[in-house]
Amino acid sequence: MTPERHSPTGTGDPLLEPPPGCPAHGLGPGGLHRLHEADDLEELYETLRAQHGPVAPALLHDDVPMWVVLGHAENLHMVSTPAQFSRDSRIWTPLKEGMVKPDHPLMPHIAWQPICSHAEGDEHKRLRGAVTSAMSGLDFRELRRHIKRYSQRIVNRFCEEGRADLVGQFAEHLPMGVMCHLLGMPDDYDDRMVEAARDTLKGTETAIASHAHVMEALSRLATARRADPQDDIAGRLVTHAAGLSDDEVREHLRVVLLAAYEATVNLIGNVLRVVLTDPGFRAQLNGGQMTVPEAVEQSLWDEPPFSTVLAYFAKQETELGGRRIRAGDGLLLGIAPGNVDPRIRPDLDASMMGNRAHLAFGGGPHECPGQDIGRAIADAGIDALLMRLPDVRLDCDEDELRWRSSIASRHLVELPVRFEPRAQQDIMQQPSHTPVPAPRDTWHVGIPKPAPHGAPRMPAYPPQPEPVPVTVPATAAAPPPAPGTGQDRPRGAWQRFLLWWRGY
Ligand code: HEM
């Protein structure tokens, strides 16, 4: 699709614009569909697939032309062929010709920046090498232990209330707590930081002040690690052999924090929504036919946290999905439409268990380097939440749920739930829906000596909150282990190994 010199969008007079519902609504010059005017992007992608096949022409705001890559194979080919397709928007013809203005609503996604996401070739290797090596030293068992503790801490804030919004009070908090910890600034995780990240991504009026708040924290961190490197992501980034400048360190801390934050918030919200609204899905989880990591993977197929990536750009004239692509054309990496390509998923209801070939993390040289961290935050966090609140249920009609959608992503606005109010728990303990007995303070071999008469008993450490009576509905509560089933036996070596492995 050679970018054409279209006349400016519409007439500016709403009376002359086709109203919503009219077949011409949402169409621009050349009869092409305007993606940003679609009421339902998923439906539009299917219309485009039916009309044009796996690569379709469409329009962005200001009628800027863009190919939408809808086919699974075509998306994979594009991301894996850096000789033909690049993430460097400086070669994009509509930008070079001034058709895309600096205030174009998609510029925050598209404008070139000196970061690994937009770099190519040796420069990409240098920047990405520093980022991947900063993340590679992670001990995942230790990470899961931290995720469980952050989850416990966050659930403690609302468990006594009996109701919560799992997007605003859980999904939007957990990834921020864990990422601040991993970057090396655990004390910066607070409500203000969550609000600032949320604002920055939403682009509200306070987005500039919020962005400044995030950047100040990251600058303080970068300066502190230059002076005194520690074993965390920031410390490993400043000491990496690639020799990143102060600006490069700050910008990559930002990319890691915000990319991780937005995607993981969406992923947790999406999985929890399905658990709460699809009884079959929940029954499979409760019955052990599906694990939480498998539920996360299914969600990455059905509702990828980023629906598209803006964008790839053709370096030379080429062909994709039977279309002639000119040098300088822009192409949208279609993650959501690629994941439902009927050539690979003829039956969308069929389980994708064990199949990780979805496009949720992109692919090729830019494939997401943080995917295992994102998966761990989502599955360990959701597991901990469900252990604490096994009777959690939706507190509104399913059709009252609302999403905030853009071309790049779809974000559940709220997930109101109810459950039996429960006491807070010691965050160092295994998440559970019943109070866990305090650990023994000492190991005894043989029969412990009774405490001298009148001597005070040692308190459990850290001090436990007062337990409150817990009522769990019969359907949700785990039944007491039946004698003879083996579950009532003392923990065996395998269970002790599992406890060690899972980190609590
Ligand atoms: C479930 C969570 C996540 C999803 C769905 C996700 C998805 C993606 C996608 C689609 C891309 C672009 C790939 C492309 O351009 O072809 C990307 C890039 C990236 N992601 Fe993630 N991501 C997630 C979590 C994370 C986490 C936790 C981190 C860091 C700890 C992270 C760091 C990055 C970075 C640094 C890039 C740029 C890589 C490059 O351009 O070379 N992501 N991610």
Q: Which structural class matches the secondary elements?
A: alpha+beta
Q: Bin the helical content.
A: 25-40%
Please compute the radius of gyration using only Cα atoms. Answer: 26 Å
For the report, how would you describe the main beta sheet?
A: 5 strands, mixed
The ligands bound in this entry are: protoporphyrin IX containing FE
In the predicted model, the low-confidence regions spanning at least 5 consecutive residues are 2-16, 443-490, 497-504
Beta-strand residue percentage: 5-15%
What is the straight-line distance between the termini? 55 Å
How many strands appear in the DSSP assignment?
12
Lateral arrangement of strands in the main beta sheet: 1-2-8-5-3
Q: Encode the helix/strand succession as letters.
A: HEEHEHHHHEHHHHHHHHEEEEHHEEEEH
Overall body shape: globular
Count of runs of 4 or more consecutive helical residues? 17
What is the averaged pLDDT score?
85
InterPro entries: Cyt_P450_B, Cyt_P450_CS, Cyt_P450_sf
Family: Belongs to the cytochrome P450 family.
Protein name: Cytochrome P450
Report on this structure:
- It comes from Streptomyces olivaceus.
- This is Cytochrome P450.
- With 504 residues, the protein is of the alpha+beta class.
- The strands form four sheets. It has a five-stranded mixed β-sheet with strand order 1-2-8-5-3. Strands 4-12-9 form a three-stranded antiparallel β-sheet.
- The site of protoporphyrin IX containing FE (HEM) has 28 residues, from α5, α12 and α16.
